[in-house]
Amino acid sequence: MNAAFRFLRHPRRGTLSRRLVLSFVALSMVVLAVSGWTLYRQALDSLERQLATHLMAETQLIASRLSSQHQVLRLLQPGYENFNWYHIEVGKLVRDSQALGARRIYVFDPSGRGLLDTRQGARIGRDVHEVQHDRFHREKVREAFQGQVTHTRRFIDEDTGVHHMTGYAPIIHPRTGDVIAGVGVDIGASYMEAILGFKRSVVLFAALGALVTLVVAVGVARHITRPVKRLVTAAREIGRGNLERAVHIEATDEIGMLGETMEEMRQKILARDAQLRQMLGGVAHEMRNPLSGIEIYAGLIAEDLPDGDARKQHIQKVIGEVRTLSDVISEVLDFARPSQPHADVVDVKRLVEDAAFLLSPEMETANVVYEQSLEEGLRARVDAEQIKRALINLMKNALQAMDAGGRLRATTHAENENIVIRIADDGPGIPASVRQHLFEPFFTTRQKGSGLGLAIVQQAAEKNGGRVELESVEGEGAVFRLVLPQVPAERREVIA
After folding, report:
1. Which of 177, 180, 193, 370 qualifies as a FRET site for 320, CA 20 to 30 Å off?
2. What is the Cα–Cα distance from 361 to 350, expressed in whole angstroms?
3. What is the rounded distance in angstroms from the CA atom of residue 463 to the CA atom of residue 390?
4. 63 or 33, which is more confident
5. pLDDT score of 412
């Protein structure tokens, strides 16, 4: 039960799962409500019909008995309450009332004046309240004086709150057939207590049914959406370029067919990606050898020229461009032909220090001050060369962001079961429009460069069980977080 409510409260469950649950619960509630209300109304109507039939039969029986007293009924006047006949007839009506369980039995003339009444303190000639003041009673009384046996609808006594129904029947002259008076029998609807109890049971049943439906709906929704969520996860991984994880859906329906189609798509993309990487690596490899030759011959030519010769400066520029192109080709080869990681337990502090040392000449040239705050004793099982290359790329990216110099800060700390390496710069930050494309291969905002540096960082992080994240506020510099899984202290047997 608690799991069902946690499921509904979850902030990310606002999609297919929640719609399925809510739809199922809503439909079930409608069915339960309609069914319960129908049963309640059918039971109520059936009991009311039975009560009405019984009431009219008894009312007619009393009216038939009183028809023999038509002469006395016509003679009754106020003050006749002390006559013996009056007491005898009222006594008969009281016994009828007790036998029927009626609240009241009364006889009245066409003008609504009471003649006989079981109500204590009743007087001849007084208006019968029900006859004179209640519209529904007046209509039924009118029907009674037209010769019909009828009854009112169920009503509630304002004083007691008890449900009642009143039957009316004409008292007919036995010889002339004229209606000389009417009799009203007010009987309590005791069945209402039972029907109200039934109503409460229906409400309770509906509430319990709703809870059971909720639990079942959550289970059904999870069963239906679980393969859909797997497909969404697989699609996201494919979208990120992660083609290593197979799409496996254990289903034979349309969702299973969709999973098979996605797996076929992944296989084709993987094959095409392998072909492109092979071609790209081959091209880069073929370009590297002639570039090396150009750099060597250009260097020999530069050595033969005097220092003041303008041609020597031009050749130095050529050599610089060749080296830049060689760096690009190296990045292309690293991206196109990534090696499988050879994981060892390494000291993260040492990796960061080695990367910073290798880049120290470039930092000095760029007028960048390097600062570090590295926690001791942090160990990770990774490929040291791959992670070191990733750190170098992150630091190079920071250097390129600070054209006028600044500070480059490297920090490490433990976070849950991971190690976080932060590389921060004082650059202009990264615009929001660029962030979503930042780790895409060949994406760059600079005129020079392959656009593969950050893609290689992401590739290395994922192959070593980690990830790379960006923290950047435009105008306040950028912070890259390289997150790696931490090795527990008891398993730090080797330090690379």
Report:
1. 370
2. 19
3. 12
4. 63
5. 92
Strand partners, 408: 370, 425
Q: How confident is the model at residue 452 (pLDDT cuts 50, 70, 90)?
A: confident
CA quadruple 18, 20, 23, 29: dihedral, nearest 10: -90
Q: In the 8-state DSSP scheme, what is residue 92?
A: H
Phi, psi of 174 (to 5 degrees): -65, -25
Q: Residues 235, 259: contact at Cβ < 8 Å?
A: no
Confidence label for 490 from pLDDT (cuts 50, 70 and 90): low
Would you tell me how many other CB atoms lie within 10 Å of the CB of residue 58? 19
Please state the CATH superfamily assignment of the domain spanning residues 344-491 in this structure. Answer: Histidine kinase-like ATPase, C-terminal domain (3.30.565.10)
Please enumerate in sequence order all residues whose Cβ is within 8 A of that of 307, keeping only pairs 6 or more positions apart, or say none.
none
Residue 161 neighbours by CB under 8 Å, 6+ apart? none
How open is the CA angle 362-364-368, to the nearest 5 degrees?
Answer: 95
Give the C-alpha separation, 295 to 316, whole Å.
10
Neighbouring CB atoms inside 10 A of 160's CB total 10
Q: Which residues contact 378 (CB under 8 A, 6 or more apart)?
A: 347, 348, 349, 412, 413, 414, 419, 486
* Domain extent listing, the chain: 16-194, 268-336, 344-491
Instruction: Give the span between the Cα atoms of 346 and 173, in whole angstroms.
Output: 117
DSSP 411-442: EEEEETTEEEEEEEE-S----HHHHTTTTSTT
Which range has the top average pLDDT, 293-302, 394-403, 482-491?
394-403
CA-to-CA dists, residue 375 to 44, 346, 351, 353, 467, angstroms: 79, 14, 12, 12, 20
CB of 399 within 8 A of CB of 427? no
Letter for the amino acid at 148? Q
Q: What's the one-letter identity of residue 391?
A: L
- Domain 16-194 sits in CATH 3.30.450.20: yes
Residue type, 341: P
Q: Write out the two tokens for 411.
A: 């920090």
Average pLDDT, the chain: 77
d(CA 404, CA 381): 37
User: For residues 351 and 460, is the Cβ–Cβ distance under 8 A?
Assistant: no
